[in-house]
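QA checklist item 7 of 12: single-chain prediction sanity check.
[x] sequence parsed
[x] length recorded as 155
[x] structure emitted
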Amino acid sequence: MRSYWVGMAHAETRKRTDGVKDILAKYPEIKVVEEQSADWQREAGMTLMNNWLTAGEKIDAVAANNDEMGIGAAMALRQAGQGATMVAGIDVTPDAMTALKKGLLMVSVFRDPVAIATTSLDAAVSLVHHEGVKGEVWVPATLLTPKNVDQFVAK
């Protein structure tokens, strides 16, 4: 299996990409053959995917570092008759929820900004009071698919 993703522009991009690479390292049969920036933009994701398709690349999966790039890649794949290709994004934007419902995106990950801020502030207050923080502080994320996006929207 081959995997492609778009986006390498800044620190958050590198962290998200490194996370994907860490997981893919557990699956040696999956080969990553492209990493390029689409600057967090739908149009750039579409252009990049069109370039890969025009070059004759076979696309099996896309792990985009945000929903906009993923939606752009998915649009290019659909226009090329490869709409069944698995495309994943991150952020669960309103457009991503629509794309999930339409089957354009297969997955998006919601990182709750309120929970991130609250957890960060709690950790900072603990440190200010010399209470310390044990290890890394994680905030759970929510995986959305076409099957559960409506329940997420209802919340």
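[x] summary fact logged: Helices lie at 11-24, 42-54, 67-79, 94-102, 113-128, 149-154.
[ ] second reviewer sign-off
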